[in-house]
Structures are given as structure tokens and as C-alpha cells.
Amino acid sequence: MSAAALSVRDLSWSPGRGTDTLLHPTSFTLGAGRVLGIVGPNGAGKTTLLRLLYRFNRPLTGQVCLDDTDIWGLSARAVAQQIAAVLQEQPSDFALTIGEIVALGRTPYRRGFAGNTGSRDQEIIDQALARLDLHGLANRHLGTLSGGERQRVMVARALAQEPRLLILDEPTNHLDIRHQLEVLDLIRNLPLTIVTSLHDLNLAAGVCDDILLLRAGETIGFGPPDQVLSEAAVSDAFQVTARRERLAPSNAGHLTFHLPNKEPHI
Fold it and tell me: Coiled-coil segments, which residues (predicted)?
């Protein structure tokens, strides 16, 4: 796996003519190997942007480029060999074992109706299972797993694609504290370019190199977490009062939030 630079140029989207624009022209550049966190209130356009990045929707305007190549100029197979996505919506069941589901990540590399798994493919599948601590579940079926275990299966399947860009939509949802920490450690250490949407702003600040703050489909800020997630910007975007508490002079601080005339909440 090798990371790709991501360039988003004047990207916008709406469901159709005469409908509201859900994402207004958005531009940013993410260097190869960096982690971008997309944050904002509900309805900000986070999922809309992610769907454009993994080519689920065609943009109304603009381009999504990997290393200066527009993804809409590539075949679907070529895109699937470079971009993998882990979504919030999880399938309730497959008539497949966990090992077989993870093996689906190798589909973009197979030709025709070839269903056999070669030694190289099996090595990649085994590595993905091991990285997400799933070897002990490899012969189980998805319907027998917890929500957190299913999330780990979907991440493993994405890694088996050997993508250059990994897109994660709320990857810590359904996870207990231990597996949240494991997924965050994975994000920090994968040699990939990663774009992830996150609700927890403090978590995003701790794991991401850059932050894109959205509100109502508009970009409020893009850049390092300590610059974008200012008290003023967060308060404006989320319609709350945000305060940054610092435990030490060198500490970037921890954001707390409260409604006007209410006690603060972490």
C-alpha cells in the first residue's frame, strides 16, 4: 500500500435540479499519508462529501483527484483498487464467513469470474484479519457478531483492498473503549491517506493532521486542528458555547461545550 495525495477542487453536489445544494463548492488539498477529519453538526454535508470522495455520487461541479488524476476519468475497477470506504451502514448478515467477507476486498484485483484466492491474496487477507484481531472469528457469520465486531470486519475488508485512500464514516461508532483506541491507533499508523468523519471533536483533534469544519454544506475552516477548532469557530458551527481547557502550558487543550446559560458538558 502507498498513500496518494488528494485534491478536491470546487466540489459541490445536490440531489437534482430544483433541489437544495447539500454541498457548496469545496476545495482542499491533503498530502499523501495525512489524516483528515471532517467535522460539523448534523446536516453539515459530511456524508455527502464522503460519498463524492469514494465516487458513490457524481459531483455537480468540481473534481476529486488522486495524485492529480480525476477519479471520474478512471474505470470503476481502477478506483476500487485505490479507494476503500467503511460506512456507518452495516449489512445485517451475509451468507458468508468473516474470512470470506474480508476476502471480498480482493475483488477489484480479480479478472472475470475468477473466484479462487491466490497465495498473494490470502497473505493480504490474513494480514487484514490479524491487524483487526479477527482470526478467532474468521469462521463465524456476521449475524453472530456484535456491532463493534462487525465494524472491525468492515475495516479489515477495506484494508484487504490495499487502497491508497481510505475513507471512514464514523469509524468508532458501536465500538467499546478498547476497540475505539485500537481503531484510532490503526488510523495513526496506517501508511495511507485517510479521510474520516467524526462527531467527537476532541478525538478528531487528537488523531487527525488536518480538520475540515463544515456547516450547512459550507466550509468554515480547513487546516491544523488547533487552528480550525477554535472556540469561536466551534461555537459558531454548532451553535453552542465552546471553551478550551488547558491542563498544562504545552497542552493543546480539551474542548468543553454548553448551551447558553447552562453548565458545561465535556
Answer: none
Segment 239-248 long-range contacts (CB within 8 Å, at least 24 positions apart)? 239/41
Identify which of 50, 49, 162, 45 has the alpha carbon closest to the alpha carbon of residue 103: 162
- Identify which has the larger pLDDT, 243 or 6: 6
Please give the model's pTM, rounded to 2 decimal places. 0.90
- pLDDT per residue as tens digits for the range 222-233: 999 999 999 999
- DSSP label at residue 7: E
Rounded distance, CA 56 to CA 138, Å?
Answer: 29
DSSP string, 62-126: EEEEETTEEGGGS-HHHHHTTEEEE-S---S--SSBHHHHHHGGGGGG--TT--PPPHHHHHHHH
pLDDT digits (tens, 9 = 90+) for 203-225: 999 999 999 999 999 999 999 99
208-219: b (≥16 Cβ within 10 Å) or e:
bbbbbbbbbbbb
